[in-house]
Design goal:
The complex is a heterodimer. Chain A is α+β, with helices and mostly antiparallel strands. Chain A has helices spanning about 1-30, 35-40, 45-50, 65-75, 100-105, 110-115, 145-190, 200-225, 240-255, 270-300, and strands spanning about 35, 85-90, 115-120, 130-145, 305-320, 325-340, 345-360, 360-380, 380-390, 400-410, 415-420, 435-440, 450. Chain B is mainly beta. The chains are: A alpha+beta, B mainly beta.
Chain lengths: ~450, ~120
């Protein structure tokens, strides 16, 4: 009953907040909007400076793929593609045969994280044409893995070791069977075969011999390896015997259940077929177990603690009427984001940002931003406090303070609230600077949009 | 069934001790099992491991099986370098391969006759 009421309350809140969200949507449909996330840290800077969030981004993995992507997009040098989003990390386009997993996991360099981005988007109405932007970003300091991630890695490596052992046992079985087949073939052909037996009966006897031999080989190989203390030495004394017993029983079950295809000819390759069946079945064990860990490990940048420093740069140009001869510089952005993450999901983030607008290819209105944010997340709930100051070439500096609250209702559905003081003169109605925003986000818990004057 | 890359070679031993190192690059995680004949002598991460003295190893076969999993989101390249060093000779055996599907594994097997 309690769960039912809680569920009803959630539905009611969704409906109520959906109405508020529709109202909020009208508020934020303004020019010059900039999201708090943009000031805190950038995603791909070429996308950020254009204010776009592309749904399809080209991310080539080889130099050839990169060339093809760029060639296809900019096929005609006089025509700028309308909606193009591209990011590449050059370091990973080539192989790095001496770079080992442990080194990369513990420490990542600026070169490894250096990414270049290119994007285009239509000019704001009433202008006709396209904006084109270039950008780069990197992590000068990338922190270190947190303790949960380290434990995940240890479990993963242990699991990979088990998989390696299974493959090694199967490999030994295969080698054994190559020799055994000769014995089966020669002894069977000479002594067991009755010339009056039908082909099907001969084949059936042959199958039984193979199955028996394979089972003996399986038991022998697993017994031999399980007695060797070097194999899977990292497993504890209760895990090791169970691993080998389970695997032996698994293989024997496969063999017992295997039905050979009907054939009217003798075949010397039945053992190969059975080896393939055993190998395929073993592969399914490894896939079912690894993916628990590898997806978490792949978020190695997301769960890093300690000092981090990200820097990004982007510049854009406008091409009226989509003609390269009408190109002019339009915007420039520089972000420096130092951060310190503590174990226990506490982030301390700073932001330094410069944003410039071009007129006649010269920067006129430059704006500097400096701020800090403290963020804490615990399960479905997140809270942060941020302060931001804005300084322009002319005029007094202006300040903003905001308390943000996030609560996860369902996957990718968040209630968000922001309360505080905005920059002077920046509220929608033109009066006051109080921030009171309540909304619902269908995304990653992004904060509400705040309008800024140009 | 996942890919398997096999390589057969030989190493001329001397009277010195022979050391084995296995470098798994690109930077994917992996694990190895090293057999001398049928017997496992080490498993897991192998760095500067003493296999034995060249005189006692002569005529034997070193069989190494390394399982590597594709870890990086933006690359499907994998590689393993097996290094044998006895102070007189250093041999590096480099094998590489590309997985077809993201997160797939590749098994690298090298058979080295110690002569």
């Amino acid at each position: 009953m309690r769960n039912y009421s809680k569920h009803l309350l959630k539905i009611f809140l969704v409906i109520l907040i959906n109405q508020l969200f529709a109202f909020r949507n009208n508020i934020v449909a303004q020019e010059n909007k900039i999201e708090i996330e943009d000031l805190k840290a950038t995603g791909s800077p070429a996308f950020t400076i254009l204010g776009i969030n592309p749904t399809a981004i080209e991310r080539p993995q080889t130099p050839k793929a990169m060339g093809v992507t760029l060639l296809n997009a900019f096929n005609n040098i006089n025509v700028i593609p309308k909606s193009f989003a591209f990011e590449v990390t050059p370091y990973w386009l080539s192989s790095h045969n001496n770079l080992e997993f442990e080194d990369y996991f513990n420490h990542q360099s600026a070169v490894q994280n250096l990414a270049f981005s290119v994007a285009t988007s239509p000019l704001d109405s009433p202008s006709v044409g396209t904006s084109l932007s270039f950008g780069f970003r990197t992590m000068l300091f990338a922190g270190a893995p947190n303790s949960d991630l380290k434990k995940c890695k240890e479990n993963y490596i242990r699991n990979l070791g088990k998989d390696n052992t299974r493959e090694s046992i199967l490999d030994q079985i295969n080698e054994d069977l190559k020799h055994k087949a000769l014995v089966i073939d020669s002894s069977y052909d000479k002594s067991a075969r009755n010339p009056n037996d039908s082909i099907l009966k001969i084949d059936s006897v042959y199958r039984s011999l193979i199955l028996l031999e394979i089972k003996e080989v399986i038991k022998y190989r697993i017994k031999k390896d399980s007695a060797n203390n070097e194999v899977l030495s990292k497993l504890n004394s209760s895990e090791r015997p169970k691993f080998f017993d389970d695997y032996r029983n698994f293989l024997l079950k496969i063999v017992n259940e295997t039905k050979f295809k009907d054939s009217d000819t003798l075949s010397n390759t039945r053992k190969d077929e059975l080896y393939t069946i055993l190998n395929t079945a073993t592969d399914t064990i490894s896939k079912s177990q690894d993916n628990i860990f590898i997806d978490s490990l792949r978020n190695v940048n997301k769960y890093r603690v300690g000092w981090k420093l990200e820097t990004s740069f982007a510049i854009s140009g406008d091409f009226k009427n989509d003609s390269t001869s009408n190109g002019e510089w339009s915007k420039l952005g520089l972000w420096v984001t130092p951060a310190y993450t503590l174990e226990g999901n506490i982030d301390l983030i700073g932001v330094l940002r410069y944003f410039g607008n071009f007129e006649a290819n010269k920067i006129t209105n430059g704006e500097y931003y400096a701020g800090a944010r403290v963020l804490y997340k615990n399960g479905d709930f997140g809270v942060s406090f941020e302060t931001l100051s804005k300084m322009q070439n002319k005029g007094k500096p202006s300040f903003r303070y905001a308390l943000n609250l996030d609560y996860k209702l369902y996957d990718n559905v968040y209630i968000t609230g922001t309360f505080g003081k905005n920059f002077d003169g920046s509220n929608i109605e033109g009066n006051g600077n109080l921030i009171t925003l309540l909304g619902i986000n269908f995304g990653m818990g992004k904060n509400p949009v705040v309008s800024l004057k140009k | 069934m996942r890919k398997k890359i096999t390589f057969d070679t030989q190493f001329l031993v001397s009277t010195n001790d022979i050391f084995l190192t296995i470098v798994i690059g690109n930077p994917n995680p992996g694990s190895s099992i090293v057999r001398l004949g049928e017997d496992v002598i080490i498993e897991g991460i192998v760095k500067n491991f003493k296999i034995g003295n060249g005189r006692s190893l002569k005529g034997k076969k070193l069989i190494i099986l390394t399982t590597v999993q594709d870890f990086l989101i933006n690359s499907n390249l994998t590689s393993v370098t097996f290094v044998l060093d006895d102070g007189v000779t250093t041999k590096k055996y480099f094998l590489d391969g590309t997985v077809d599907v993201d997160k797939d594994k590749i098994d690298y097997k090298i058979n080295i006759d110690l002569k």
